[in-house]
Specification:
It contains 15 helices and no strands. The chain is mainly alpha-helical and about 280 residues long. Helix 5 packs across helix 7 and helix 12 packs across helix 15.
Length: about 280
Amino acid sequence: MSNPLLSNSMALAVPQGSIEAYVQAVNAVSVLSAEEENTLARRFQEQGDLDAARQLVLSHLRFVVHIARSYNGYGLPQADLIQEGNVGLMKAVKRFNPDVGVRLVSFAVHWIKAEIHEFVLRNWRIVKVATTKAQRKLFFNLRGAKQRLGWFTNDEVEAVAKDLGVSTEEVRRMEGRLNARDAAFDAPNDDDDSAAFAPAQYLEDTSADPALVLEQDNWQNHHEAKLLRALEALDERSRDILQCRWLDDNKTTLQELADKYQVSAERIRQLEKNAIKKLKEAIVG
């Protein structure tokens, strides 16, 4: 079931024309006192008052802008960062408990940053640079640890690894991802030599080669035909044993077949082994 508070997120969308105008608008909203915040939170929590929730959200939009601006170095649109932060703020308002004794602004930090982090990881590169929780933490901490452009020295790698509690290999691997750039699959339109290094020039999918597909089909059909002829050459009891032991969905035990043919289980095993041997010889030969 959709959350009514989150369904109103479009009303909080950042204006496409001017970020400055949006910032001025949210800064014009009054900051709530602790008593006002507590009253509104209780109205929303106990009565489901969406207007109270709306006031809580609006009074904290300036805080979202402040957090979103700290992520400008990732090269993503500030409007998108703010909108994602707003989603996190609304999630925080939904979960906020005034009885805990902390202000909403302190509680909402985690939710706002979590939504912005997820947006950055989804959109910073075509290929996602971090998937696990540890990789995500390393990604953002490593970005903050870099004090200059260029690659880390060995001493810097070891220092960062020690500070973040990870191995030097993990730091180097993530640094490589941070310094990598997305490459177009197809060759560029110009005539320079870079066209030869486009992935389309050297990445080949041979699985769809018509000649190979036809060859594989012929090979499979040939061996299936030999297998069928070999099965037909077996006596009826041997075929039944193979059918019950290998081809049926509900496999039959050796003892059940022994009871059926009034022989020992060892005799059934020998018949099965001989029948399989004949099939192999027919297919290989």
